[in-house]
Amino acid sequence: MVKKNEFEAYHALRRDRDQRQAMLNAQHAERRKLQEQIKQTRERHARQILSLHNQAANYRLMRDGGQQTIRSEFSRSTGQAREQSRSAPRRGLELGR
Fold first, then answer.
1. How far apart are CA 81 and CA 74, in angstroms?
2. What is d(CA 95, CA 49) in angstroms, rounded to the nearest whole number?
3. Rounded Cα gap, residues 42 and 25, in angstroms
4. Helix, strand or coil for residue 1?
């Protein structure tokens, strides 16, 4: 009877160990899948933000008649950055105000 109990206990221990390992493997696979989705979402958001920045730059160029060169746009933006650093901080994106 003792041998039978030891045998059943051993098999129950192995079964539990195998179930735990299977659960860990499933969780690991799910985590990899979720991490890939997170990576893709972050990349998509980065592309969207870049597109918004480009649209804002195009809007400013259209608004100003497209007369500015990159150098004058850079000079203008650095001048604004200096002015903004002296004034109260703003929140949000500047879309050509």
1. 10
2. 12
3. 26
4. coil
pLDDT score of 65: 80
Entry pTM: 0.51
For residue 75, pLDDT over 90 is answered with no
DSSP three-state, residue 97: coil
Whole-number pLDDT of residue 36: 97
Domains in the chain: boundaries: 2-77
- Both tokens of 33, joined, read 């899948």
Give the DSSP letter string of 23-85.
HHHHHHHHHHHHHHHHHHHHHHHHHHHHHHHHHHHHHHHHHTTT---HHHHHHHHHHHHHHHH
Q: How far apart are CA 42 and CA 36, in angstroms?
A: 10
